[in-house]
Amino acid sequence: MPSLARHFVGNLSGKEIESLKPGPWGDMVRVPIEIAPVAESMSVRAWTDMQTKWSFEGRDRPHLENFLRTLNIAPRLLAQMLDTEHVKPSSHGMDMFPTDEVVFGLSASARLAIYKVLAGSPLNADFLKAVPQEDVVHLFERWGVTKSAIKRFTSVSCPYKNNLICYAFPAVLRSISSYEDRVNLMRAVYRQKTMLLRLHITPESNCERLNEYWSRAIGSMDTKILLESLIRTQLDTWLNVVLLLPPLPSALLYSYPPPEEATNAVPKDCYWTSFNFFHYPPDNNFSIPSYIVAKVDSDYYPINNDPHFGDILFFTTPQNKGIHSAVFIADNIVFTKNGIGALNPWMLDTIEHLTDLYSFSLPEGQSVKVCYYRRKNH
């Protein structure tokens, strides 16, 4: 079928292609790609006009004030931060709306301490911008970002392992006068590194073994028919793994939510994404924490052996507080959505990258734990 032609490649070569480790998933490679939202979907003006918001979950005003006073913040900036116009109680703790002067005036050590607290709450997920440091150094200018814009972005970001972490992007955009420069910076910041996954099918491929691993998604018979058909061609074929995914992730992969969903009452976050992996149509109750907890207790069980296709990964703090979830595909590759907003795509990522990214909120030397759960009927 012509519409399926893009999912098959007769020959695959290139220096950036990386083989996955051997496993029940078969002989696979990943091909690095980048995706970015189109300019029309980025709401540059809305982001520029947006107030920077920092949510300090679980803290009252005295607790927050005591924390800020330990950071040696300049008295003028501290007074602004504690002014009742800029910090207000909320149902979950305290919300701060720092001025741009505060955002750019904080010392590197104070900014790092504040960002690590913000990273510990999903309430700040929409403001999180994590960009590989090597991209900022080597690729931002190639993508049209000016040196002055790069300097503004890095000045309010914190280096952490391979990333620059920023929770003040609206302030950065306001500091850039040119609309075109704002667009280029947004496209660069929201550009995501992901991958294509290809399964190598040859006349010698073990159809039964491959079918046993991949058939959970589209049904044993359908998967087997596809694999047998490719094996019978007597040719080497590289099958795009998107054809082996369930209907929902197959449709969502490499896409961004429509801008109109920004006001949708259903937050399509990592948990909605993970628990709906095998659901079509999706169950929007998986945006409700209590519903998720009940479903985990009734329909899932923890596993300590090797993960299988479709298992759910929970990234938690050492104290077992949930931070993120994703779905296991093969080797160290997962299906994920790293954030709630319309500029966070559904994509493939590595467990190592997500572990680094979500360990930012933890004390120095600590890392998130990864736990695996499997549906009882799988």
What does this entry look like structurally?
The protein has about 375 residues and is of the alpha+beta class. The chain has three domains: about 1-35 and about 200-245, no CATH class; about 40-190, no CATH class; about 245-378, Alpha-Beta Complex (endopeptidase fold (from Nostoc punctiforme)), CATH 3.90.1720. Helix content is about 35%, strand content about 20%. It is built from 15 helices and 17 strands. The strands form four sheets. Strands 12-17-13-14-15-16 form a six-stranded antiparallel β-sheet. A five-stranded antiparallel β-sheet has the order 1-11-10-3-2. Helix 10 (about 205-215) packs antiparallel against helix 11. It is globular and about 75 Å long. Mean pLDDT is about 90; it is low at about 1-5.
Salient structural properties:
378 residues; alpha+beta; endopeptidase fold (from Nostoc punctiforme); 3 domains; 5-stranded antiparallel beta sheet; 22% strand; globular
Topology:
Elements: E1 8-9, E2 18-19, E3 28-35, H1 44-49, E4 54-57, H2 61-69, H3 75-82, E5 87-90, E6 93-96, H4 100-105, H5 108-119, E7 129-132, H6 133-138, H7 147-155, E8 157-160, E9 163-166, H8 169-174, H9 179-190, E10 192-201, H10 207-214, H11 220-232, E11 237-240, H12 247-252, H13 270-275, H14 289-299, E12 300-303, E13 312-316, E14 322-330, E15 333-337, E16 346-350, H15 351-358, E17 369-375
Antiparallel strand pairs: 1-11, 2-3, 3-10, 4-6, 5-6, 7-9, 8-9, 10-11, 12-17, 13-14, 13-17, 14-15, 15-16
Helix pairs in contact: 10-11
